[in-house]
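Thread amino acids onto this structure.
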């Protein structure tokens, strides 16, 4: 069974085994959730970038400990490449790979967000659709009857939370026919 819950709260307050955070190659200094996590972890991400161990390249994945400074135990930084190169196929592909990586790590309970600030509502909706399409495509290769997975999708902005809820409900309709999905929130 796959459970998807939308949360009207700040993403970094999401309680889960792991949270997925985007890292862009061309956003230095770090902004958004990655910037806030970097600050909480005393510049750990910036130091990795400075030492040329992390770049934000497309599909790059880095697993960090939250050092008990966040409600989630682990942080998965996912490289999105350049922010100007975010196409629908790339976004869908990367979120599908996120699910694959999380399953390989045997994580059953994770948090994620649309993760891009300062964009228009139509662009937010497009990215949310791509994210959900990728996540659901990633889960389509996993025998859900053998395991339960719980995905929390957080959005603190009330207007965008309503957009996100609608996107998730629409995205799940076709997938629901083949797998048991429970929507909460």
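Threaded sequence (185 positions):
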């Amino acid at each position: 069974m796959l459970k998807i819950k939308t949360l009207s709260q700040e993403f970094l307050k999401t309680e889960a085994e792991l949270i997925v955070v985007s890292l862009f190659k061309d956003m230095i200094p770090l902004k958004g959730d990655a910037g806030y996590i970097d600050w909480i972890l005393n510049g750990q991400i910036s130091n990795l970038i400075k030492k040329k161990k992390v770049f934000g390249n497309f599909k790059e994945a880095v697993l960090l400990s939250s050092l008990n400074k966040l409600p989630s135990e682990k942080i998965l930084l996912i490289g999105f490449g350049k922010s100007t190169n975010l196409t629908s196929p790339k976004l869908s592909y990367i979120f599908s790979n996120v699910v694959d990586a999380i399953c390989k790590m045997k994580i059953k309970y994770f948090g994620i967000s649309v993760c891009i600030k300062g964009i228009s509502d139509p662009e937010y909706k497009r990215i949310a659709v791509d994210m959900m399409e990728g996540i659901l495509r990633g889960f389509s290769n996993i025998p859900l009857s053998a395991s339960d997975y719980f995905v929390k999708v957080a959005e603190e902005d009330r207007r965008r939370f309503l957009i996100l809820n609608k996107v998730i409900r629409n995205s799940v309709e076709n997938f629901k026919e083949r797998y048991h999905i429970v929507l909460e929130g």
